[in-house]
Model the fold of this input.
Amino acid sequence: MLDSDVFHSFRRNPVVVVSAVVTAVFVLAALLAPWITPYHPYDLASLDLNDAFTPPAWTEDGSRRFLLGTDDQGRDVLSTIVFGARVSLLVGFCAVLFAMTVGITLGLVSGYVGGAVESVIMRVADVQLTFPGILIALLIDGLARTALPRDLHSEIALYVVIFAIGIANWPQFARTVRGSTLVEKSKEYVQAARVIGLHPGLIMLRHVLPNVMGPVLVIATLSLGFAILAEATLSFLGVGVPPTRPSLGTLIRVGNDFLFSGEWWMTIFPGAALIVLVLAVNLLGDWLRDALNPKLR
Amino acid sequence: MIAFVVQRLLQSVLVMLAVAFISFALFRYIGDPVLIMLGQDFTREQYEMLVRDLGLDQPFYVQFAKFVVSAVQGEFGISYRLARPVAQLIAERLPATLELSMMAALLALTIGVPMGVYTGLRRDSWLSRFFLTISLVGVSLPTFLIGILLILVFAVQLGVLPSFGRGDVVKFGSWSTGFLTTSGLKALVLPAVTLCLFQLTLIMRLVRSEMLEVLRTDYIKFARARGLQNRAVNFGHALKNTLVPVITITGLQIGGIIAFAIVTETVFQWPGMGLLFIQSVNNADVPVMAAYLLLVGFFFVVINLVVDLLYYVVDPRLRIDRGAASGH
Done:
């Protein structure tokens, strides 16, 4: 994967280096959130309603204690953003991982086995691709919300969102993996593995899979941007992650209620964080696609 | 050709049945409609009588068939939340969504195509680079944030445009339009711009890459060699040949507009179907959800069918490719 060609094109491209750094900073901040944020925003003991609606530090009424101001509950906006990015990235990564697992499995099976199995899987993928992903995620999330009892749902809401976004995303993985599997299947090493009597499952996993992973990584990066945006959109619409664990989208939704009364920082800063994160991930994905595609090089 | 059409039609019917099935399962098995209709006090007899009246004691497939028949006739039951027929609710909100979507699609086309042509012809001008950079940012900006930013600038800071609702509407029978009043037109501006931005960048990038492709072909070189004016070559020969994919993608993007209309309508409290849907999801208003699901499924299936057929009819070169592609 990390051959010198790819690495070279990485170093030559300043935009990509910046994107990589930004993404890394977000991931690190999200991982270390409880240790690096100035306040723990969801620790009720440390909240003081007298601090509510403090504007950012550089404005007239700002306070040194809160760099990006506070929200309606007196939480430090910077801390809520870091904790929000934690939820956004968690959902994004898990959703892509889920989509990848389902997509790779179905793609491998349909490419390797062929026949009726292949037609059914690929037809379903085709049909699903004609619907926008965000609509599918919204429908699944909405259905789960209606179908599950309220208590149970708020408990597993996070998993429901991951499932919904993951399901909306699997066809791209399945299609790509199937395509590459068809190519690999006819190569000699696969035939040799078959001749010595290996189990088809073992051939798919140990021999075909490692050779189809390149394009999968590109799609995974591009899907991560989509997944983060989808989660933010769902949470903004009020159907995403539970309010007890707000993501960037939830923060924007809450802040939006105060836009007219002038507390712009509650919306703008989480919004900016979301844009920067998604833009960085998308730029990385674009670059990875071009770098790994010999036709464009 | 006939085989292709029949195959596509069959597939559409299958997809529609699958959507209807999900919609029916939702309608029938989530919550007990009988309990909801009876309210607080009722006897065992009343309960059983209503079950019989509604046909809920009949086998599953009979119920499903009935559901499909009444859905085809536009009968979707009564909204739990608003206690009014769902068909009526949707009919009231359909014009708002359609006007918004049409406006957005129109904006995306009339701005996106010229921008795409320009960036395709003048690849290295600074304006082209600027457009391309903007479009990359546009793709990464979530629709709801664009809406919020526009509200912040034009409604909160400048105070020149309204931030929510449709303004005054004029009624024509069951259709209500915002096109005929100043406040209606003003209210349309921000939501339409929000909704069109993503499609606009998509169309621009598509037209650009198609133009670049076409400009490399032999017949363009030949047209130039014949001494035709640039204008004639660029617009008469090149642009014309880029339009087939643009038409198809635009057709398919109507689906995207419907999906993102949900988001836009929520941001701007636009009284359309998308807002109705989100409110139903938040209130577990199952009949409205089921009806919306069916309706959107129907839109998508019809759009895809039309686009597929158009593809086939408009560009004869594709017929061979298509035949080969569906062969494996």
In short: The mean pLDDT of chain A is 83.
